[in-house]
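Figure 3 (text version): structure tokens given as input.
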């Protein structure tokens, strides 16, 4: 079963708002076993909408539209659909009563523009909108399903969950689709692909693997389709088990996990605490850690030591180290990690010092050179990395690398 999503609105095309509706609908359709084969964004223009509909019905069985159903003159979707399906707009009393009730509760006058929200094409099935004034519409024409919903995300989601999901499940015999996403970090996509090449080659035809890279991370999404849920789940479970055997050291979680969230769980589980000493990352590691609700239970704080004086006075870094090997060195980050751990009285600490760029590099220490240390109750370790010549990515990669070093130390102790 194939679906296409059409988003309507000039505000999307000019980048004034981000199209989150398509992303959400894609996830929900996938859970139903419906494959999204195309996504289109068009302007508030009759011809653009008609052209999109004509193209979509050649590709898909289910065409889902969002946007263009408001009360203003530029919202022409409803009028276009009525014309497209050869019908006329008629007043729906249930919708009118609801809209009237909303304006009465808000103590606002009911004007003709708002009353027109209750006009719908005569050959559609109304999808009642309990969170707004614009109803959704369901058309079953020539074996194709056309769904039109408001563009306001919470209204669209309410209509889709309340009305569309049950109707689609009743209308079509849908297959079982399972997605399982494994999260890896600090291994490049090509290196990861090489390590799991044989596993990927051995996948059955009904299970696909997608690589989804981002800065410092690669998500591996396994997607399978079958008629029996238990059979498919068992197949994917076996594949994932084998994946852990091959590249388990790089896996930090699954699905919607984050590295910082899972580190928090490890720290809470061991009743341990952590602090950070950040030079080149400028507090970014602290930001990631504290983005997790409840992180105050295990995170004490950070010393952002951009200047060498702060490294010396706040963390106890030796002036001799800074004068001989410099701030971007193994000796410096080892002392930074030990210093912040002692000062903030934590069990663990992460320290970073590097050259984020775009200038400041030398032949010996080019832009992107970063030293990271992690200190714990039984050891303090440091590693050198070259994060590349992009400042923002260097900061992000350094933070991810530091968190992953902490994760591995926590798992080992």
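Below: residues designed for each position.
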């Amino acid at each position: 079963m194939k679906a296409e999503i059409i988003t309507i609105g000039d505000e999307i095309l000019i980048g004034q708002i981000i199209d989150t509706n398509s992303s959400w609908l894609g996830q929900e359709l996938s859970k139903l076993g419906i494959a999204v084969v195309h996504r289109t964004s068009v302007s508030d223009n009759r011809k653009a909408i008609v052209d999109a509909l004509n193209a979509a019905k050649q590709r898909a069985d289910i065409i889902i539209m969002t946007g263009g159903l408001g009360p203003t003159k530029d919202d022409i979707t409803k009028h276009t659909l009525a014309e497209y399906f050869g019908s006329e707009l008629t007043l729906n009393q249930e919708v009118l009563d609801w809209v009237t009730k909303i304006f009465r509760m808000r103590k606002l006058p009911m004007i003709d523009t708002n009353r027109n929200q209750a006009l719908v094409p005569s050959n559609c099935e109304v999808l009642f909108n309990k969170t707004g004034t614009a109803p959704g519409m369901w058309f079953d024409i020539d074996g194709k399903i056309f769904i039109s919903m408001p563009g306001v995300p919470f209204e669209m989601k309410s209509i889709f969950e309340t009305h569309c999901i049950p109707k689609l499940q009743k209308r079509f015999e849908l297959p079982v689709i399972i997605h399982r996403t494994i999260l890896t970090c600090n291994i490049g996509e090509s290196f990861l692909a090489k390590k799991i090449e044989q596993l990927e080659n051995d996948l059955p035809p009904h299970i696909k693997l997608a690589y989804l890279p981002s800065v410092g991370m690669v998500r591996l999404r396994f997607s399978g389709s079958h008629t029996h849920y238990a059979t498919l789940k068992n197949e994917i479970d076996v594949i994932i088990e084998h994946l852990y055997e091959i590249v388990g050291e790089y896996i930090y979680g699954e699905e919607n996990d984050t590295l910082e969230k899972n580190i928090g769980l490890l720290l809470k589980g061991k009743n341990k605490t952590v602090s950070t000493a950040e030079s080149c990352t400028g507090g970014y590691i602290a930001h990631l850690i504290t983005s997790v609700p409840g992180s105050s239970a295990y995170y004490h704080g950070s010393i952002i030591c951009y200047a060498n004086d702060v490294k010396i006075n706040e963390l106890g870094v030796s002036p001799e180290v800074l004068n001989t090997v410099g701030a971007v060195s193994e000796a410096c980050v080892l002392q930074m990690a030990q210093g912040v751990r002692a000062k903030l009285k934590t069990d663990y600490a992460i320290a970073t010092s590097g050259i984020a760029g775009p200038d400041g590099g030398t032949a010996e220490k080019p832009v992107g050179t970063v030293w990271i240390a992690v200190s714990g109750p039984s050891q303090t370790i440091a590693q050198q990395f070259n994060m590349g010549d992009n400042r923002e990515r260097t900061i992000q990669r350094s933070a991810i690398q530091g968190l992953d070093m902490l994760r591995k130390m926590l798992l080992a102790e």
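The CA atoms of residues 286 and 302 lie 7 Å apart.
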